[in-house]
Recover the amino acids of this structure.
């Protein structure tokens, strides 16, 4: 296994996070709430470790991390100044991208069929950070996102199979 | 036949001598042949054009002068060289997709009035091409799209082409002829710092539509990539369906991640997930407990399969394993079936290190 591939980076990070999660609380045997809580944490850890494992700069990684941070902060209702700053930075970025989107769609709208826009908006909702991108970049991000998702699924499946025997 | 006076465009690419040469030649030799060619089956026209497009100027001239010359192979053309006899006769050039592509893209030759577009282009392609304002000018200096970027083709068949084009355009209508001349702009992408887009026949050539076309091509390229990524998407044709398929795929992947994390949340966490514990000394206690000796011999083949890197640290550990395990083999035998895969051994008490090793191997 290639030690520097996306797969291995994600795997190590995710396993580390998993150990932390499992070490944090001793499992009170299979209470649904406990499992659910852990499920949320594990999912967040998966998304976070995937976002961190990506080498190239991508819009969706920033969006994922921002969502996670804002969600966790919203729950705790604590907003540190750094978090606010990072949120502002991301908001600025999305605003900038929205402006770009406005300018480019005028010229690009001709190229994309009108019926495509509906599905494109659906895709925007799916891909994190997709709202503020133009169609061309959206396709790019989607491709990278799909690639990362498949890696994530593969690794998680192997881990789950491995440990659920 | 009218001679192209070579007026126009930038006029820089073709020397006067070449023009004269071509003019003289065509006047001498080809009028009859070309008329014959006109009556050739229409389906050959495209192929013949395209094959001839590849001819660089000197070779074309050579062709004219020495009918037996076999040097008709244009540099980039993958097609077999057309024989001169074919050239004279029935124009049965081999049909080559690459050539057709280039011809389609190259469709400048209809070139009528749009000389303006050429002024923008930096390519060495002949804008003298565009100079022929009307189709009646038989000799056109057409650029050859060679990768060596030879500028001009003084093709005697230019005349032929023009005449055929005349026929075609009478059939097709006049809208197309105006456009194509403008876009040889994307000729030498290798030479020039900015990306050129080649106009197809009958397409508009102003800068806005160019940019749009570039965008569209980018989008199409990315859609193709996406189609390759999404399984089962390559058969589908049509953008909307492909997009639907992509959306479904993304949704299914996200759902899979959710289910898997649910599974991981529910899994029994007694097992230590830490991979690094394998290689640390203090994990010896972990290895001692709950160790299944039958696993060791099965470990070796896997170790060897996965290369040397993992082998050495495992060797160290496995040696340590041997002593404490010997007493446990009979216990473990009941759980283990050596024929099964390594995953199937004792789940209740397996050592974390072995798990991690195997997990690493699998990953």
């Amino acid at each position: 296994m290639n030690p520097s591939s996306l797969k291995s980076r994600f795997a190590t990070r995710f396993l580390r996070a998993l150990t932390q999660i499992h070490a944090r609380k001793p499992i009170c045997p299979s209470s649904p709430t406990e499992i659910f809580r852990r499920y949320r944490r594990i999912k967040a850890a998966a998304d976070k470790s995937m976002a961190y494992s990506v080498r190239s700069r991508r819009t969706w990684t920033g969006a994922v991390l921002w969502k996670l941070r804002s969600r966790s902060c919203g729950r705790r209702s604590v907003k540190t100044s750094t978090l606010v700053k990072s949120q502002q930075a991301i908001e600025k970025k999305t605003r900038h991208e929205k402006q770009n989107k406005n300018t480019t769609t005028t010229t690009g709208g001709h190229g994309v069929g009108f019926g495509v826009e509906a599905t494109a908006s659906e895709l925007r909702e799916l891909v994190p950070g997709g709202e503020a991108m133009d169609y061309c970049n959206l396709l790019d991000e989607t491709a990278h996102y799909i690639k990362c998702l498949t890696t994530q699924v593969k690794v998680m499946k192997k881990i789950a199979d491995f440990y659920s025997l | 036949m009218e001679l192209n006076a070579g007026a126009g465009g930038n006029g820089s690419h073709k020397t006067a001598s070449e023009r004269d040469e071509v003019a003289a030649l065509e006047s001498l030799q080809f009028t009859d042949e070309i008329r014959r060619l006109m009556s050739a089956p229409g389906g050959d026209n495209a192929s013949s054009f395209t094959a001839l497009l590849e001819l660089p100027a000197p070779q074309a001239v050579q062709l004219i002068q020495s009918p037996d010359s076999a040097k008709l192979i244009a540099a980039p053309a993958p097609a077999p060289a057309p024989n001169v006899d074919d050239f004279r006769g029935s124009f049965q050039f081999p049909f080559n997709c690459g050539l057709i592509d280039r011809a389609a893209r190259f469709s400048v030759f209809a070139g009528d009035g749009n000389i303006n577009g050429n002024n923008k282009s930096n390519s060495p392609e002949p804008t003298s091409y565009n100079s022929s304002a009307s189709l009646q000018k038989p000799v056109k200096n057409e650029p050859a799209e060679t990768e060596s970027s030879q500028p001009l083709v003084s093709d005697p068949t230019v005349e032929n082409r023009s005449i055929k084009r005349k026929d075609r355009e009478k059939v097709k209508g006049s809208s197309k002829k105006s456009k194509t001349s403008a876009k040889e702009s994307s000729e030498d992408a290798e030479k020039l710092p900015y990306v050129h887009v080649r106009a197809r026949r009958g397409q508009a050539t102003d800068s806005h539509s160019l940019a749009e076309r570039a965008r569209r091509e980018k989008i199409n390229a990315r859609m193709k990539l996406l189609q390759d990524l999404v399984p089962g998407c390559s058969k589908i044709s049509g953008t909307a369906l492909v997009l639907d398929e992509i959306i479904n795929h993304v949704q299914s992947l996200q759902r899979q991640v959710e289910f898997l994390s649910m599974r991981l949340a529910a899994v029994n966490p007694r097992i230590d997930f830490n991979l690094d514990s394998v290689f640390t000394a203090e994990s010896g206690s972990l290895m001692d407990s709950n160790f299944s000796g039958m696993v060791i011999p099965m470990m070796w083949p896997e170790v060897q399969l996965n290369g040397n890197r993992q082998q050495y640290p495992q060797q160290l550990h496995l040696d340590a394993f041997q002593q404490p395990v010997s007493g446990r083999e009979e216990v473990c035998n009941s759980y283990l079936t050596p024929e099964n895969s390594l995953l199937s051994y004792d789940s209740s008490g397996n050592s974390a290190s072995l798990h991690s090793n195997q997990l690493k191997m699998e990953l």
Observations:
- Chain B has 15 helices and two strands.
